[in-house]
Amino acid sequence: MAESTEIAELEESFRKFAVYGDTKATGQEMNGKNWAKLCKDCKVTDGKGVTSTDVDIVFSKVKGKTSRCINVEEFKKALEELAPKRFKDKSKEEAFDAMCQLVAGKEPVNVGVTKAKSVGAVERLTDTSKYTGSHKERFDETGKGKGKSGRETLVDNSGYVSAYKNAGTYDAKVKK
């Protein structure tokens, strides 16, 4: 059987994969989707000895009849079930240890996450320093949008004509 530190790492990997992609997950139970992701990310599925179908069958075998998730103990049992298929040349104990080494300490990988690329045309069209006319008024010098003040003309209700130099000085003159 695997050592206690390896078991702790195995359980930590279980928790990380159990909460992956589910904001409500507690890390105590893992669903079938996350089990399949764990097997794929940790290279338990090799395409020959262990396929994604085998992974799904083992998950269905170890989970409770009415349950949709597996706990840590069922997770270890599932790894024991898959170990002889993945490592055919080793004994059952050695295969389980090798399987634990594959999974222990691993985290979910975000593969295929798209990142925004700025291509020449997009970069040119989104450069606010090149805007002209009324569009230019919507952004400040740094290129940040002004918000509502950039879209609408705000009316000055101070009582003075626009661009009047001595605006706001009437009260000071009258008090004298």
Q: Could you characterize what this model shows?
A:
The protein is mainly α and 176 residues long. The protein is 45% helix and 2% strand. The chain contains eight helices and two strands. It has helices at 4-19, 32-41, 52-62, 72-86, 92-103, 120-125, 148-151, 170-174, and strands at 30-31, 69-70. The chain has a two-stranded antiparallel ribbon with strand order 1-2. Helix 2 (32-41) packs across helix 3. The longest helix has 16 residues, at 4-19.
Features:
176 residues, 45% helix
Output mean pLDDT: 82
Structural class: mainly alpha
Identify the strand order in the major beta sheet. 1-2
Query: What form results from the Cα inertia axes?
Result: elongated
Stretches with pLDDT under 50, minimum 5 residues: none
Secondary structure elements and pairings:
Blueprint: H1 4-19, E1 30-31, H2 32-41, H3 52-62, E2 69-70, H4 72-86, H5 92-103, H6 120-125, H7 148-151, H8 170-174
Antiparallel strand pairs: 1-2
How would you summarize this macromolecular structure in one to three sentences?
The chain has helices at residues 4-19, 32-41, 52-62, 72-86, 92-103, 120-125, 148-151, 170-174, and strands at residues 30-31, 69-70. It is mainly α.
